[in-house]
Design brief:
The chain has 14 helices and 4 strands. By secondary structure, the protein is mainly alpha-helical. The strands form 2 sheets. Strands 1-2 form a two-stranded parallel ribbon. Helix 7 crosses helix 8.
Amino acid sequence: MTGKQHIDLLQALSAGPDLPRTGRRLLDFARQQVPGRRCWALEGIGSYGAGLAIFLNQAGEQVVEVCRPKRAANRGGRKTDMLDAIRAAKEALVTEHLIQPRLRGEREALRVLLATRSGAVLASTAAINQLKALIVSAPDELRAELRKLKRPAQIAYCAQFRDRPAQDLEHRMTVRAMRSTAQRIQALQTEAKELENEILALVRQQALELLGLLGVGPITAAQILVSWSHQGRFRSEAAFASFAGVSPISASSGLTNRHRLNRSGDRQLNRAMHTITLVRMRLDPSTKTYVARKIAEGKSSRDAQRCLKRVICRQIFKILERAGRNRLGNLEELAQAA
């Protein structure tokens, strides 16, 4: 099998439905070329490469994840599937710490629920903004009915609107639009709440101790679990902090000795850490004392907040690793008992 046929197989794996057959051909080709131990460097394991990664893992192959290969800097840089495969292999060879793919199963279940809930929340917010715009431009008599109501009461009131045949066309159609929009908001909010309950049940099964931390709710905990994936994926809590974007980056120059914000890493995980930090700074007395001490040492309020994020990240990582070891031990005991 030539290299071109190899690339054709990879494309078939991405686009074709017959994964076992094409995957077996690709695996046979790899075993002919490399009879001993092999390592597969895959890009896009969370999307188009997910099926291939699962197939290779089930076949007992070692799979690592690589980031998007760097393109050539010059304008004449070529871009083909063959070149992308070579770049991915070279990146895996020169990378000091290889990236383990995230697990499927419970973690993937949390991820899809989080993504679906996020879509429902965004759609609900857009519908609420649309309803507010309808209220602002509504006829005066209709706007007067809603003026003194709070937002939840406005939504409930508009959802119960009935047709008003005695009014003019503008009034009737505005009522129709408000009712439809308010009912859509209620449906989306109900969907988001049901998904949140499903997420909470899964989080309780995987890391109940995480929910006991101040500032950690079901959505925040689920995002942390999705980004962390499994015990042993990160070589240290410093690597986890870097992945979360809370590790300070040195920005010293001359007589100035300071650190700046880390803008890399998983931004959704960083958002979860930021939410926990804000809640603790508002409600936790020990956190308030810690921030005040950092400010007294000469740090700015933002720098003190960054230090706090790093402390929270260390605490969460220890809990996750401990929970992961406990779950692994329980699974081994069940396997031995079976």
